[in-house]
UniProtKB/TrEMBL annotation:
Keyword presence, RNA-binding: no
InterPro entries recorded: MFS, MFS_dom, MFS_Exporter, MFS_trans_sf
Pfam family, one: MFS_1
Bilayer disposition of the protein: Multi-pass membrane protein
Residue ranges constituting the Major facilitator superfamily (MFS) profile domain according to the UniProt record: 26-458
Gene Ontology CC annotations of this record: plasma membrane
Organism encoding this protein: Adlercreutzia equolifaciens subsp. celatus DSM 18785
Record field: transmembrane: 32-54, 60-81, 93-110, 122-142, 154-173, 179-200, 274-296, 316-334, 346-364, 370-395, 407-427, 433-454
Listed GO MF terms: transmembrane transporter activity
Protein name: MFS transporter
PANTHER family (alphabetical): QUINOLENE RESISTANCE PROTEIN NORA
UniProt xrefs under CDD domains: MFS_YfcJ_like
């Protein structure tokens, strides 16, 4: 008779590990910080042209540049943000950038001359670009890899809320209380970003200060430590687990190209001076999203005069509220779907929705068509932006996240920045309705380019 002590113990049942937490203190604080700086940006952007026209009696072109100078400053910051993060560290740079945002917002209260106002707008755009790129880098580094799409979708809702609340608050305060109150409220709002930044406690890897080589050295040291654990593993199962952990640590130090196109571009840029400022692997998807944002710029520039021309100005006044609500409702679902099934089933409908929304807008004959177009465009732009960023960063090493985020946002800024200039030339020739039909074609072209870029993507699931 075999004693109970001699009985073989049953093998432990393998349980699926619980998903890594998403709503950590870092994620919540970073998302709120992004909302504060985005709300400040949109609140001031919508009133700046009118402020320059009415208070400073500036010519129309100069008044418009008082608003768009912010975008110019932001574009320059995309080139500088990654090297600055490498030199000073992400968290110190973020705190200093938030303080600069508060100081520059307060300067509007001094009622400076137009020339000085443009200078402040340039500097403010630069500080905003540094802050937005840095916080995006921190957040994309702390979101669990298996929840990138979901996490970035929630994070980008902070911009959605800022784009809805900021313009509404700016116009309401300007019309009822005057521009000084707008500037004061904007300053208080962005001041809240400082305690939010101080609450952030990212993982040590996100605090790397110095060159990329220093970051890679840390990863290599971690991998070597895990390699030692492989040799000392007591049984085959433990050795397999340790080896898997080692492979993950080694993979974190390099970017694995997602497509053949990415591989070709990476090979050309990797050893060039551009590598310091541009992450070659994210250029393809960044160009796709930048092209879509070129089409989106037509909404910012011409929606109000177009709606006035066709007698639907009332619906246009709440267009961006419906647009933001569509983003807010759909982004969490599209982010989780992106993590489960990959980019194609999520992003292809978004491109189609964008093109359809532009067609509906071009043929709008009543308020409901304007608002329907807003919902379609909100889903399209919001999904492409968040999922495009997830595609860009999900296989980027932590040491290159700052460059990847800067590259992605740089192409979005280019699309939004050159759109009003080029479209302003052709709009008088085509008319607004035909212009929006052309933007539908731009959406189709962006879809075709996306299918080329993501044709051979690996590891989509």
């Amino acid at each position: 008779m075999v004693s109970s002590a001699a009985k073989v113990a049953p093998a432990p049942r393998c349980e699926r590990p619980a998903p890594a937490p998403l709503w950590t203190r870092n994620f919540v604080a970073g998302t709120f910080l992004n909302f504060f700086i985005a709300g400040n940006y949109f609140m001031l952007m919508v009133v700046m042209t009118a402020y320059a026209l009415t208070v400073h009696q500036a010519p129309a072109a100069v008044a418009a540049f008082c608003a768009s100078a912010f975008i110019v400053g932001t574009l320059f910051s995309r080139f500088a943000a990654a090297p600055m993060m490498e030199r000073f560290g992400r968290m110190p740079l973020l705190v200093v950038g938030c303080i600069a945002e508060v100081a520059l917002s307060a300067l509007y209260l001094l009622n400076e001359p137009v020339g000085a106002l443009i200078g402040v707008r340039l500097a403010h755009g630069f500080s905003y670009g540094v802050c937005s790129t840095t916080i995006a880098t921190v957040i994309t580094s702390v979101v669990p890899p298996e929840r990138k799409g979901e996490g970035i979708g929630y994070f980008m809702l902070s911009i959605t809320l800022g784009s809805a609340i900021g313009p509404f608050a700016g116009i309401f305060l300007a019309n009822n209380f005057g521009y000084p109150v707008v500037f004061a409220v904007a300053s208080v709002l962005v001041a809240l970003s400082i305690p939010a930044a101080l609450l952030l406690r990212p993982a040590p890897a996100t605090k790397v200060k110095g060159s990329e080589a220093a970051a890679e050295a840390e990863v290599k040291a971690a991998a070597d430590a895990v390699a030692g654990a492989v040799a000392e593993a007591p049984d085959e199962e433990a050795r397999e687990d340790a080896a898997a952990n080692r492979d993950e640590a080694l993979a974190a130090s390099t970017r694995v190209p997602s497509t053949h196109l990415e591989e070709k571009i990476s090979a050309k840029v990797e050893h060039s001076p551009l590598a310091r400022f541009v992450e070659a692997g994210v250029l393809p998807i960044s160009v796709v999203c930048g092209l879509l944002f070129f089409g989106y710029s037509s909404l910012l520039t011409f929606l109000t005069p177009y709606a006035t021309e066709i007698g639907l100005a009332r619906a246009a006044s709440v267009f961006f509220v419906v647009y933001a609500l569509a983003m807010f409702v759909t982004r969490p679902f599209t982010g989780r779907a992106f993590d489960r099934v990959g980019p194609h089933p999520v992003m292809v409908p978004a491109f189609v929705s964008f093109a359809t929304g532009m067609v509906v807008l071009a043929f709008a004959a009543n308020d409901w068509m304007i608002l329907g177009a807003a919902a379609l465009l909100g889903f399209g732009v919001g999904t492409v932006q968040s999922c495009g960023l997830a595609m860009a960063v999900r296989v980027t090493s932590d040491a290159r996240l700052s460059v990847a985020n800067a590259t992605f946002y740089m192409l979005l800024d280019v699309g939004v920045g050159i759109g009003p200039i080029l479209l302003g030339i052709v709009a008088p020739l085509l008319g607004y309705a035909n212009l929006y039909l052309c933007m539908a074609v731009v959406g189709v072209l962006a879809l075709a380019l996306f299918l080329v870029v993501a044709k051979t993507e690996k590891g989509a699931r």
